[in-house]
Amino acid sequence: MPFYFIGLGLSNEKDITINGIETIKKCDIIYLENYTSILNCKKEDLEKFYNKKIILAPRQKVENDKNEIIDNAKTKNVAFLVAGDPFAATTHIDLFLRAKKEGIKCVVIHNASIITAVGITGLQIYKFGKTTSIPFDNENIEAPYDVLKGNLSLGLHTLFLLDLNPEDDKFLSVNDAIRYLLKVELKRNEKIFSEKTLCIGCARIGSQSQMIKFGTAKELLKHNFGKPVHCLIVPGKLHFMEEEGLDIYK
After folding, report:
1. Strand, helix or coil for residue 121
2. pLDDT at residue 101 greater than cutoff 80
3. Domain annotation for the chain: domains and CATH numbers
């Protein structure tokens, strides 16, 4: 029986591809990954649109050694739904590889992801460097700052993906990310990031309510970006066309 990894896109229940929805309709069990990102709709909206019951899959259900998702995929048609693209979050390749080792046929149906959708900012996708995440518990973590430092040294843009916990309705905001970078800068004093650093704050990219703001870190701290999902971009060396694109978000 095939095990389907299906991307849902970035906004709501209608962002799924035709291939994706046709596949879901023939599946016996459907899981919705519920920890790396969220859509701008409820699980019930997906169930109504797909006419299928959906089981939420928090991190422990997906990553446990004793894995009910893989066990079910051995004998049934199982779909694993992911907001965005199935493999934009690297954690899902583990589930894919574990299923493969069990001899399960895996089929991937791709969709839009934040990695490509940030092109709406006007920045050129191929000029992004390493993407990094900022976690909730970041008091003693400086790796995201180091990624920024490395990317800037090459003139590349940096995309920060921000942590969220849908079960507890918690998420990091653009403002949280800026304050984190300022805190590490204050500690290390490497003149990598300051209140004058140009940034792009993004919220709910791909949805009808998306918000994109371009300005200095200090200016962005004055904005309320609203509901998740948020991300922060610190641009590197800008091409004149990128500068023109960013101007509309000032």
Report:
1. helix
2. yes
3. 3-112 (3.40.1010.10), 115-247 (3.30.950.10)
Contact by Cβ (8 Å): 114, 83 = no
3-state class (DSSP) for residue 9: strand
Name residue 219's amino acid. E
Q: Is 146 helix (H, G, I), strand (E, B) or coil?
A: helix
Cβ atoms < 10 Å from Cβ of 175: 18
Residue 91 confidence (pLDDT): 80
Q: How far apart are CA 147 and CA 158, in angstroms?
A: 8
The secondary structure of residue 108, as a DSSP letter, is E
Question: Any alpha helices (H) in the chain, and if so which ranges?
Answer: 18-25, 43-50, 59-63, 68-73, 92-101, 114-117, 143-153, 174-188, 217-220, 240-247
- On the question of pLDDT at 158 being above 80, the answer is yes
- Residue 137: Cβ-neighbour burial (10 angstroms; 0-12, 13-18, 19+): exposed
| pTM, 2 dp | 0.93
pLDDT tens-digit series, residues 200-221: 999 999 999 999 999 999 999 9
Closest CA to 235 of 248, 222, 218, 217: 217
Indicate whether 40 pLDDT > 90: no
Sequence-ordered list of residues with C-beta below 8 angstroms from that of 224, at least 6 positions apart, any chain: none
